[in-house]
């Protein structure tokens, strides 16, 4: 069986390979994981820190950029927020919008990403194919 130190290194290296982390964040995570695993080995209950529900980490104006959209809970930047919100914070986009008073008209994807996807759909003729499929379905009825 692996030692606590080996398990800690494995867990943190797996997380660090998927997430950009500063040296300070890496050391802090090593300490937290090691402490939690040590407590579990002793049969103690591990206290889980809840994320602060205070104000946003990033202002709304800075959160919605052209190339990236930043999570107002943790401050991480990405192309789209939906998957991140579910996996990292276990909330839906609707709950996120409500928590930070974001209007439904505001996209939770970076503008450049949305434009690229839109142009890709136009180039492939997806709008025309959808219209033809709807017309064919309407004729059958």
- What's the β-strand tally? 2
Report the mean per-residue pLDDT as an integer. Answer: 88
Write out the strand line-up for the largest beta sheet, numbering strands in chain order: 1-2
Content of β-strand: under 5%
The low-pLDDT segments are none
**Overall morphology:** elongated
* N-to-C span: 65 Å
How would you spell out the order of helices and strands? HHHEEHHHH
The count of helical stretches stands at 7
List the helices and strands and how they pair.
Elements: H1 4-18, H2 23-41, H3 60-63, E1 69-70, E2 77-78, H4 82-89, H5 93-100, H6 111-124, H7 126-140
Antiparallel strand pairs: 1-2
Helix pairs in contact: 1-2
Q: Overview of this structure, please?
A:
With 141 residues, the chain is mainly α. The protein has a two-stranded antiparallel sheet with strand order 1-2. The longest helix is centred in the N-terminal third of the chain and has 19 residues.
Summarize the structure.
The protein has 141 residues and is mainly α. It is 59% helix and 3% strand. The chain has helices at residues 4-18, 23-41, 60-63, 82-89, 93-100, 111-124, 126-140, and strands at 69-70, 77-78.
């Amino acid at each position: 069986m692996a030692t606590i130190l080996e398990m800690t290194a494995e867990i943190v290296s797996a997380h660090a390979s998927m997430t950009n982390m500063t040296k300070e964040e890496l050391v802090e995570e090593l300490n937290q994981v090691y402490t939690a695993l040590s407590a579990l080995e002793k049969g103690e209950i591990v206290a889980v820190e809840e994320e602060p529900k205070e104000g946003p980490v990033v202002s709304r104006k800075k959160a919605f950029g052209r190339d990236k959209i930043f999570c107002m809970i943790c401050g991480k930047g990405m192309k789209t927020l939906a998957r991140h919100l579910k996996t990292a914070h276990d909330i839906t986009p609707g709950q996120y919008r409500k928590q930070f008073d974001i209007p439904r008209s505001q996209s939770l994807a970076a503008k450049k990403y949305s434009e690229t996807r839109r142009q890709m759909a136009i180039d492939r003729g997806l709008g025309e194919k959808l219209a033809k499929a709807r017309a064919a379905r309407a004729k059958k009825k």
